[in-house]
């Protein structure tokens, strides 16, 4: 009998617990039914857009900041103050056609502009806050960096090997910079192969915003493997160079040429006959590299820009002082990308191929000075860059060990089916 009483007690407790759970669930549902669900506040550019009437548009031809503000009921004194007091932050003369902007207007009958947001590029934007005391400031969108591994086998050229995989062209540009002195990219062989580790930028986790510089790479050219690892070799100047697995610097003092894939069209020649001048003999103290208009022109070494101007037959040009011994000059540019006083690093884009000045075709005339005298850069014995300092090498080897393992584990894409084999298979099937 005692056994049955125990069973009854267990059943009673079980029913009581279940009834309590049902009551608690009902109470929770009642609370949820009564309590309003708060809508999360979503901010764009740091503002809650629900507090404003929002106008989205792009700068049209003929638009000016002043006109846009007047259309949205901003008075002249405020416009004048922005134009005069904040020109270092927001130069109203430099808004460009096609650039997106947003105007946040008051949510009343006046709909007066409260905030103007101008998107300088995919990441950077400028805010002009027109409320109360006017102010202007620059900000960046939140960017997520995602590491990516790619590899390829050369069938025609490096660009095709990357572009056919949907890779940003800047990866091609950056990879060519990494190996600019160790590999002649005009002499790549079919079967050369590479692996690359780099980061891609994404805005709001989904909008692609470009690629970063290369973190590490492997290139096998003519059967010779060449590793490259980015490493900061000067913490005071935050300078990063590329070194191989033995800590040798891949960079040299000067690049071979100022364009990545240009064609050597005319060498330094003091007795050259120049077609532009009626085939008369005139000294040609430059080295010409032909390339399509708009091709980027790179600084061949670190240095300071001493001239960025236009003059006579030189057209638009840039001149760089590298040290007390060497200077270089780049002529006939379509447009310069640097100004006097800028410090540039080897490989930085300083302008673009054009046809300004005296020239019969698109090219860059590359001039090279040594101790104040123009010389032929292709005949100069130029110094190599220093290897990584011995004091930094132990930390460097520790740093690159896992990255080298990561590179080694990256697989190459499968070889495409040869057209001849495919044609043969189709023939067999039809027979």
TrEMBL record:
<keyword id="KW-0862">Zinc</keyword>
<dbReference type="InterPro" id="IPR016047">
    <property type="entry name" value="M23ase_b-sheet_dom"/>
</dbReference>
<keyword id="KW-0482">Metalloprotease</keyword>
<dbReference type="InterPro" id="IPR011055">
    <property type="entry name" value="Dup_hybrid_motif"/>
</dbReference>
<dbReference type="GO" id="GO:0004222">
    <property type="term" value="F:metalloendopeptidase activity"/>
</dbReference>
<dbReference type="InterPro" id="IPR045834">
    <property type="entry name" value="Csd3_N2"/>
</dbReference>
<dbReference type="GO" id="GO:0030313">
    <property type="term" value="C:cell envelope"/>
</dbReference>
<keyword id="KW-0645">Protease</keyword>
<keyword id="KW-0479">Metal-binding</keyword>
<feature type="domain" description="Cyclic nucleotide-binding">
    <location>
        <begin position="56"/>
        <end position="82"/>
    </location>
</feature>
<dbReference type="GO" id="GO:0046872">
    <property type="term" value="F:metal ion binding"/>
</dbReference>
<keyword id="KW-0378">Hydrolase</keyword>
<dbReference type="InterPro" id="IPR050570">
    <property type="entry name" value="Cell_wall_metabolism_enzyme"/>
</dbReference>
<dbReference type="Pfam" id="PF01551">
    <property type="entry name" value="Peptidase_M23"/>
</dbReference>
<dbReference type="Pfam" id="PF19425">
    <property type="entry name" value="Csd3_N2"/>
</dbReference>
<protein>
    <submittedName>
        <fullName>M23 family peptidase</fullName>
    </submittedName>
</protein>
<dbReference type="GO" id="GO:0006508">
    <property type="term" value="P:proteolysis"/>
</dbReference>
<dbReference type="InterPro" id="IPR000595">
    <property type="entry name" value="cNMP-bd_dom"/>
</dbReference>
